[in-house]
Every structure is written in C-alpha cells, then in structure tokens.
Amino acid sequence: MIVVVCASFFLVVLCACVGFAGWAFATTQSIMQEAKHAKEAVAVWDFVAASDALDAIQKTTVRAEHAVDFFGFLAPFPWIGDQVTGLAHTLEAGGYLLEALQNLCGVGEDMVRLSGLSADLSTTQVEGTFAEVPRETKRAVLMRLSEASSDFAQASAQLSIVREEMQQWGSALWLVSSLSTFLTLLDQLDEASQSLHNLQTFATILPEFGGLEEQKTFLLLFLNNTELRPGGGFIGTYGLARVQDGDFVSVQTKDVYALDQLAVSSLAAPIPLQTYNATPFWYMRDANWSPDFAVSALHIIERFIAEGQSLSEEQKMSVPTAMSVHGVIGLTTTFVSDILVLTGPLTVSGQTFTAENFADAMEYQVEVGYTGQGIPSSQRKEILADVVESLLYRLYELPASDWPALLDIVSANFSQKQLAFYSADQEVEEALLQAGWAGRVLSSSVDTQMVVDANLASLKSDPAVDRDMTYEVFQNTKGDWIGRTTIIYAHRGSFDWKTTRYRTYTRLYVPFGTKLIDTKGSLVNDRLLNPSQSEGVVDVGTDLGLTYFGAFTSVEPGETQTLVFEYLLSDGVVEAIENGSYTLTFFKQMGASDHNLHLALDFGNTIFYATPSEERLEWGNETYLLNTILDQDKIFEVLFD
Fold first, then answer.
1. 609 vs 573, 580, 618, CA distance in Å?
2. How far, in Å, are 224, 342, 502, 514 from residue 362 at the CA level?
3. What is the pLDDT of residue 144?
4. 526-532: long-range contacts (C-beta < 8 A, 24 or more apart)?
5. pLDDT at res. 193
6. Cα dihedral angle (300, 305, 307, 310), rounded to 10 degrees?
7. Could you give the number of structural domains in the chain?
8. What are the entry keywords (predicted)?
9. Predicted confidence (pLDDT) at residue 356 exceeds the cutoff of 90
10. By the 8 A CB rule, do 246 and 393 touch?
11. Does residue 428 carry a pLDDT above 90?
12. Residue whose C-alpha is closest to residue 300's, from 251, 262, 260
C-alpha cells in the first residue's frame, strides 16, 4: 500500500512538473511575442500601440503569478522548486518594470503630442521634421523631457533588477523556457538596458545643451584627428553656438589661428610642445594636451577667454569671443563622416563632401585647393562654416523617422570617443560621466593602461600610421611583477602634401606608483634631425592620479618603429595579483582610430574565470591571452587560484 501511495504521489508530482514546464514555456513565448510588438511600435513612435502591448504582457504576467501560486506546492522539491521560486521572483520584479515602462510610454505619447508629429502606420514612418516644430513646442518638449529624467532612471533601475533576478535564477529559468529562449531574453534585456541608459542621459543633458529657459553658449571644437592630439585632434577650427529652447540662435566658426595670432600669450607651452613642435607659448590651438576631455576643456576655456580679453574691441569684431561659456562640444572628422552617412553628400561652393572623402577633401581645400581659387589664406577655412551651416540644415530637415538612427550615431561616437561633451553644470557633467560621454580618464580598476599620442609637426599623417599595442604581465626570476607595454607604429604612407614622417610624443599612463625599468625606441628627434638615431630621454610624471612615461619617437614612411616601456607594477596591482582577483581598464585615446590590442597576462596560477573570454583553446592555463580591437574604453577581469 505504501508503495502504491508513493508511486501515485510521484506520478502526480511528475505530471505537475511536466505541466508547469509546458505552461512556463508557453507563457515565456507569449511575453516575448508581445515584447516584440511593443518594440516595433516604439520604433515607429506609436506609443499607444506599445502601451497596448505592455498591457497584454501585464495581463499575462498576472495570470502567470496566479499559476505560480497554484504550482507553489512544488517549491519544496529539488530542481522544480528552484524553477517555481525563480519564476516567482522574476515575475514580481517584472511587474514593477512594466509599470515603469508604461510611464515611459506616457512620456512618449506626450512628446509626440507636444511636437505635433504623427505616426503614419501605413508606411511605418513618422511625419514631420525638426525644422517644422515651432520654438514654443521645442521648449515644451525639452521641459517634458527634463521632467521625464526620473522616469527613465526608474525604468532603468527596474530593468537591472529583472536582469539580476534572471541571472540569479538562470539555471532554473532556462530549463523551463529552453536555453535559446533564455539567452534571447537576456540579450533583449541588455539591449533595452543600453537604450534606456542612453535615453536617461539624453533626458538629463538635452535641456541644458538645448538652452531650456535661458540662452546658453557652447564652445565648439572641430578636432582634426588626422593630426592626433591628446584631447582628440588638432583644434584647427573653433566655433560658438548659442542655443535657446531647442533652437540655434547663432553658430559662428573661425580658423583658430585667426584668434591665436591676434592674441598675446605669455603662458609657457608644455615642454614637449616647446621641444618637438617649436611652440614656446601656449595658445588655444594646443590647449587640449590632456587625454581627459574635461581637463582639456577647462584649459581650452581658460585660453579662449584670456585670448579674447586681450583683443581690442575692433579685433573682437573679426573673431568669435565670449566672456563665459556653459560647456564644450568636441567632435572629430570621423564623427562628421558618420553623420554624412545618414544625411547624404553635401555640395558646398562647388565641392561635394561625402562620408568617404570628407576628411581628405576638406583638408585639401584648406591646405592646397584654396590657392588656385583666389581665396586669401585668412579666408581658407570659411568653407567649413558653410559646411556646418549646410549640415545643420540637413539635420533640421531630417525626417523624424530618421531621428533614432541619428541618436544611434551620436551614441556610438560617444562610445568610440569621436565625440565628447563637457558641461559646467555639475549635475549634467555627472550624467555625461556616468554615460561614458564625457571623455574622462577615471579608472576604478586595479590596473590601468592608456597610450596617448601627440602628432607634433608631422602634417596630417595619422591615417597612414597603424598602431599595434601589446600589454604583458609576468614575474621575473627575482620574483618581481613586471609590466611591459609595446607599441608598434607601421607607416603605410609616403611623402605628399598631407603626409610625412610621423613624429609623436607618446605617453603611457599606468597606475600611480609604477616604476620605470627600461625603455626602447625613444629618440632625441626624427631621422632628419637625429641621423644617428640617438636614444632620447624618457619623462616620468604624474597626471590624472596616474603615473605616466613620456617619450618622443618617429617613423619614416614605409617603415615601422617599436616603442617599449618596461616597469615594476604598482603595489596595488601586485596585491591584486597575489589575491587572485585582477581588473584592468584600457582607455582608448579620444580621436584615435581603432587599433589592435594584445594582452598576455601571466599570473602564475590557473585562471578559472575571465571576461572577455579567451579562445576556448586558451582556457585552463595560467596566462590570459586575448587579441581584440581597442575601439572604445575596455574593461577586463581575471580570477585565478
């Protein structure tokens, strides 16, 4: 009799398990389908339809919660109990997330209503352009966006909770929904999390950079990254943008030399600029010497205002000046090219600029082409002002259906460090920092690496120079922990109007307390001025809370040059290695192209976890080997016995 009862009970539990698994799978598929509908509706700005889809998910979730209560008797049992408990926790967190997302749909409906835009569902296009929106309406939209910042923050926080619940109960949840479905859900949550994070940042910064309530003045920096500098590229052209309530009141641009040559500076330039660039005094054009954009921005603002104050009233009429600015916007030629992919080619003064030719065509015009067109040297960069005006017009006329693509381009260029903002408003600057849009060099990792080049008197040669970077960690025969950073410069170009031998003052930033042992490849000067290729002195200093090693090196067209820094790791890095928990942030220089990065970190103990993961063949040994592309700031974590 006992056997029969036990067998019957087992069959009941088994049937319940099968029933629960089948129901959970069907519920998951239903939620994913409605989530897809919501995403598609948001893509065409139909927030009413998105809200309806969220309502459907909400109803499914409520039914699911009742079903989980019904299957609650399975909770004490191994395996199936974890699934019931995990699903209950996730559904509870999901309910709060749905409420937050419904609030965001309300924000979206308000934005569409206030702007006067409308969704044409028959063509899945959003009608209207930014130019057609009246200033009063733009002000109302900015105001609503500002108010919605907390809504985006709440939704982002709830989404993080749901993801944490899914990760915590992952081994149980994917069994009831299939591994592929579970991983798809995680991917969708990651994508949604990034989108919400970006929207939260836009909601915080746009009212400030859009001039809500009062006119704001921003300093524009056109950073020519074909002549790379620590803060993104040579400041060949600058501008002033005055904005109010979402509209540009005025935009002025000017050749930076027009200001610098009128002004008088007695401030000594950084020593490398004096030594390798024949620049004894510090002017605005060279003020982005720090790889931290905010630090460079403050130096640039200081030089800009000081130079403007040194001018006579008559001189001020010929160049844009201001007594103060609310922030700085730095953008590279790479960013402009990406925008041209969206807007299409621009034809200005008989020249057509495309995404593919913008940097070269603009550089040729302002360095060579103007001479054959009867344009005075002082006016050679006025074509850039015309391009900016034409580009702004194109963006104003951009269909609303293309705005998400524009936001994607802007977000990607922030991440890839081809675009950076600085705000004097500390709350806005903090939002930029948290989003990774401020171009800051602030590391929370145990170890830090950043290679910073400064093109000094080598024309616009950077596009012709590839960089291959390798970072090694190992223990020497004395038991000391050693770091070695190797940069290989390969010059693919030849001598022409824009390209010459590459001359760079290179700084390697490492954790404070790192001690230099040896350097190879540093030079007194280039081959023309240093035929014997005598070894140069290496500078050691502190900056941004880090130690840096600085050296000059040069490479001829068609050749390669290797620069190597070897050093004792800092006490903090050594302690982390000895504790078996190591993290590294490798910063990308603003304005730099994407370069190869190789890591060979030999910790002397078996690695059991690493992210990003190595190739499977490298698993289970003592060395973290990874080949990647430094296309943005990257964080690495390695745990070992």
1. 18, 10, 12
2. 11, 19, 21, 43
3. 76
4. 526/501, 526/554, 527/501, 527/554, 527/556, 528/501
5. 61
6. -160
7. 3
8. Signal
9. yes
10. no
11. yes
12. 260
Distance CA 419, CA 335 (A): 7
Mean pLDDT of all residues belonging to the chain: 84
In whole angstroms, give the CA distance from residue 262 to residue 252.
18
What six digits make up the tokens of 504?
A: 């760079």
Pair (281, 402) in one structural domain: yes
Q: Are residues 203 and 324 in the same domain?
A: no
Q: What is the CATH number of the domain that holds 220?
A: 3.40.630
Read off the pLDDT band of 17 (50, 70, 90).
very low
Cα–Cα nearest to 68, from 169, 178, 203: 169
What's the pLDDT tens digit per position in 587-620? 999 999 999 999 999 999 999 999 999 998 889 8
Residues 452 and 561 placed together within one structural domain of the fold: yes
| Containing structural domain, residue 498 | 447-640
Domain check: are 198 and 334 in the same one?
no
411 and 322 belong to one structural domain: yes
The pLDDT value given to residue 551: 98
Q: What is the pLDDT of residue 188?
A: 60
CA distance 566 to 472: 9
Same domain for 115 and 60? yes
Question: Are 263 and 172 within one domain?
Answer: no
Give the angle 169-170-172 at the CA atoms, nearest 5°. 75
Pick 123 or 234 by higher pLDDT. Answer: 234
pTM of the model: 0.85
203 and 90 co-located in one domain: yes
pLDDT at 179 over 50: no
| Cα–Cα distance, 200 to 205 (Å, whole number) | 9
- Identify the domain boundary among 368, 402, 435: 435
Rounded Cα distance between 164 and 410, Å, is 29
| Paired tokens of 122 | 């028959």
What's the CA gap between 16 and 73, in Å, rounded?
Answer: 10
